[in-house]
User: Fold ABC transporter ATP-binding protein from Cryobacterium sinapicolor.
Amino acid sequence: MPHLAEPHGTSADPASGRGGAARTTTTTGNSAFTVEFEAIGRTFAPTATRGPTASPPVLRDVSLTVRPGEVLAILGTSGCGKSTLLRIAGGLDSPTTGQVSIDGSPVAGIDPRCAVGFQEPRLLPWRTVTENVALGLPRGTPRAAGRARVAELIELVGLSTFAGHRPQAISGGMAQRASLARALARNPGVLLLDEPFGALDALTRLKMQDLLLDVHAQAPTTVLLVTHDVDEALQLADRIILLGRPDNDTRDGATIVQELTVPGARPRDRGSAELAELRGRLLAGLGIDRHGEARGLAATSTIPAFPY
Ligand SMILES: Nc1ncnc2c1ncn2[C@@H]1O[C@H](COP(=O)(O)OP(=O)(O)O)[C@@H](O)[C@H]1O
Ligand SMILES: [Mg+2]
Assistant:
């Protein structure tokens, strides 16, 4: 399983955008790209294990434009298609209908303009932190420039002391920081993060959220962040979309059922009344009432709110 969206061997050329789309250039020289989803639908073909009947669609008619440098959070219940949408954005999966464009040119295959980070750090165990981060450098990076860039990123994520360590000698939070540095080494125009902090303890998670904000302030690339954590979305995102099935009709695909712009500059006050109101709306959209209970379950139910 590749640790990152490996661009090598694809025909997509970052310089070949149609040019009309908006983009911004960040202080580190990378561009932040527009990502445009146009009427995305995804249905998986039936498999032997799933039986001969056609599977219902996973996604239906998802249309959305993510602005250059924007942080967009994607929320939704477990299994509703968040990862599928993210994979489609990076060319790791293809939509059945519709199209995704980055910087005005269609995504066709694994896209070198994107870097992907997952819930697990996916580091190579026999390589040091430095060597793992270096794996993210674009192919053809001159040796000296690559070395300098890797050292800079390792410092950015606070791992300078551990640069020579192997993954088993560092904590889970550190491994996830190394993984983030590796994704950034690509200088991605679009950073795709799939529940990147989901496996971390609460405190480490908060620190990683702050780190992501620092990283984004320094190199404001476009970020698509899948999360099941409403507070994380409210803390990090400019805008939040909620994927779901209208009327919970499981025969139909998930689409955007809520979209909201998060007010206020980051870092935001986690205790603000304004955010509390948005939290309530998002939780209701996820089918969770204010007491953290899934709707439709008995009040005495011990089933926790997670996974949403
Ligand atoms: N390669 C695949 N083949 C068949 N079904 C898939 C595949 N990938 C995802 N699915 C199905 O699509 C649905 C959405 O999955 P996913 O996007 O991983 O959800 P989420 O990330 O929101 O939890 C699930 O029902 C899952 O089983
Ligand atoms: Mg997922």
